[in-house]
Amino acid sequence: MGSKKNRIDIPQVIVTLFAVASIFVIALIFIFVFYKAMPTIKASGFGLLTTGGFDMQISEAFYNPAGNALVMFGMLGLILGTLLTSGIALIFASVLGLGASITIVEFCGKRLAALFTNIVRLLAAIPSVVFGLIGLIVVVPLIEKLFITVDMQIEYLDYFQITGRNMLSSAIVLTFMIAPTIVSLSIDAINAVPNSLRETGFAFGMSHFRVIWKIVLPYSRNGILAGVLLGAGRGIGEAIAVSMVCGGVGILPKLSLGMINLLAPTLPLSAAIINKSEAMGAGQVASALFTCGAILLVFGAILSITARLVSRRLVA
């Protein structure tokens, strides 16, 4: 009996070792990225988060002779571009994803629901560069045709050059990239709702829509929220597809222009790393791009902590 109590649980030990190794690797990534970003953070100070001009500063840093003073970078335009593009896409994708998942689970037969579920999961596995190509071929020309005129381009030429590569195109491409993730997890969450709860609602004379609104969605909200947060994480970190349609200019949105800002070129943090990577031979440029990565890591950490806190509150 004593030998059984002292026996080592090998599977548990292996899992624990892998967990500790994962934490160690993540910590090393944070340390390495922030170490590389530190020159830019020290030189720029708080202005890093409150000023713009990143594109011109990258050019200045690239052509500066070695030994010159560090260039100060302002990444407010990149941060706003990331938040606005990802935020718009997340709103669209959440509405589209929730509607699609409810339709698939609640209004389709089992065979049709299984078919649609498999299609959604296949869409989630499509490489991001494919979405970028579709955005270039379909979304960009469509935006130019529907919203952009020559008179508009002339009117706003003093602010920026209006083309089909803009914030709106980036948000549309991101919407269709993150929607499959939201749909897939929402389907699983809604399928997990016991049928007995639905039958109870119907027994009290509730309509199908009311059963969905009052019973199904509240019961499955944790799973749906998980899908939305995973979609947000993918939207913030997506680089390739967004860099192909964003316009590649990290300008600051102007409140006075209103919705026209959606047609302005933008440069999210992840896309900036891709677009400016050819200049990483210069040490200051490399540090600036690592700073973009550091900010993205902070966003990811905040998103993860928020998800955990919200999940605990919902469970409570």
CATH superfamily: MetI-like
Estimate the global geometry from the Cα principal axes: globular
Largest sheet: none
Task: List the domain count as a whole number.
Answer: 1
Oligomer: single chain
Model description:
This protein has 15 helices and no strands. It is mainly α.
What's this model, at a glance?
The chain is mainly alpha-helical. It has helices spanning 2-6, 10-44, 47-50, 54-63, 76-107, 110-124, 128-147, 150-155, 167-191, 195-203, 208-219, 221-237, 240-245, 269-275, 283-315. The relative contact order is 0.15.
Features:
mainly alpha, 75% helix, globular, MetI-like fold, 316 residues, single chain
How does the SSE layout of this entry go?
Elements lengths: L1 H5 L3 H35 L2 H4 L3 H10 L12 H32 L2 H15 L3 H20 L2 H6 L11 H25 L3 H9 L4 H12 L1 H17 L2 H6 L23 H7 L7 H33 L1
